[in-house]
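Closing statement on the adenosine monophosphate sub-project.
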Amino acid sequence: MDTVPDAGWRLAATYATLPDPLHEAVRPATYPGATAVTVNAPLALDLGLDPDRLAGATGAAWFAGGTLPPGARPLAMAYAGHQFGHFTMLGDGRALLLGEQVAPDGRRWDIHLKGSGRTRFARGGDGRAALGPMLREHLMGEAMHGLGIPTTRALAVLATGEPVQREEPLPGALLVRVAASHLRVGTVQYAAATGRRDLLEALVAYVDARHPHAVGERPVDRLIDGVLERQAALVAAWMAAGFVHGVMNTDNVALSGETIDYGPCAFLDGHDPSRTFSSIDRHGRYAYGQQPAVTQWNLARLVEAVLPLLDDDADRALAAGNAHLGTFPARYAAHRLAILRRRLGLVDADDGDGSLADAFLAGLATAEIDHHMAWLDLLRLDRDQEPRVLVGSRWSEWIARWRTRRLRDPALVENARVILAASVPRVIPRNHRVEEALAGAVRGHWEPWRRLLAAVGRPFVDDPGHAGLMEPPSPRESACHRTFCGT
Ligand code: AMP
Ligand code: MG
């Protein structure tokens, strides 16, 4: 008997059937000393995989030992991207798609390795990844998942046992990543840039099958409408969570609407629309408050790429593309308002809700009030406790307005309390906590990392043990964690 039934692999390779320039077969690097340092057991079980096998020598052999899982057909995906506004042909330079795992519920998930060696797309890179950034990706992905925000997730992180040279030698790692797909805005841009209409059509048909969407006559219309809708929902969720992605290049925008590629990302402390965390984002292109506009810009690049499929006549194609894009602001506004209503503990809809929410957020920005403490204060107020950060006459007025609004319909008060309690996270991975946890983990001191990972996996649970995790950073802590740009 081979090992398929035991381990649970059911790998398909539909992406490999797409025309050639969209991907290239690669062989994963082997790391003889590799061992799993963390395995995502709940995710493994959802995928129908045995977490114990993943954690042991078999897992290391599958991902880093040259013994591919049954059905694997590793390939590097080609994609392009606007990086800080400049168009570049890219592709998986240090990553590969192992295959698509068909889970017991029939859903299909890309199994992807990052840090698996150089490919034809590596340009100057070494094809490797460092442990700290891969652990950050795991932690942030679980935090987003815990918050109910669509995201890629780590199935496992392996230490390769080999150093990678960055500014200093760092422990090397391999990330096993799971996504609804790794199709990006940049994948469509790549197909368009080849100038081959057949390639673009094949890719659009593939996306249409992989991410079915009900609205739209033709595959290209369904693709645009679906991506616009999912990205509007995603960026609205990021904004409410105070999440700053950091590198919203078009190669880091997933057509699935999942958050992808956690680099210099972080959650806000003080609510500051101009806040960035990336040391390379000198002009604040991807600052917190820029994210909705940048998303729209990225979606314009998607529409641009598929213009030839919208109409044979260039003017009519442009008009059709603009008609699609013109729907984005209203989609974003609708998702934003729906999320903020829940966050404010409002059950029904009132015309004044947008202005109530805007006044709340403007008040936070004026004094750079801690984003998460502010939301937690609403929970405290709802429980008749004193607010910690929403203090002063200006806030008394706003709070009175909020309370009046919530009491408007006495029949809904109980529901409103339930909605509020279910919408305000008790814990998010604050940046100084993430840095502290990663600094420990790479030295073999795993306790803070494990504690943080467990907490962010259950962000809506009232747990006294979370309290310390949510304290804002001291001035010293925030000063030493202002910028980073690890890979
Ligand atoms: P990222 O900034 O991680 O989204 O990566 C942008 C591009 O650079 C992608 O094409 C990556 O595959 C590639 N890349 C990043 N780091 C490396 C590396 N160490 N070796 C090879 N390619 C890399
Ligand atoms: Mg990327």
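The mean pLDDT is 95. With this model delivered, the sub-project is considered complete and its resources will be redirected to Aim 3.
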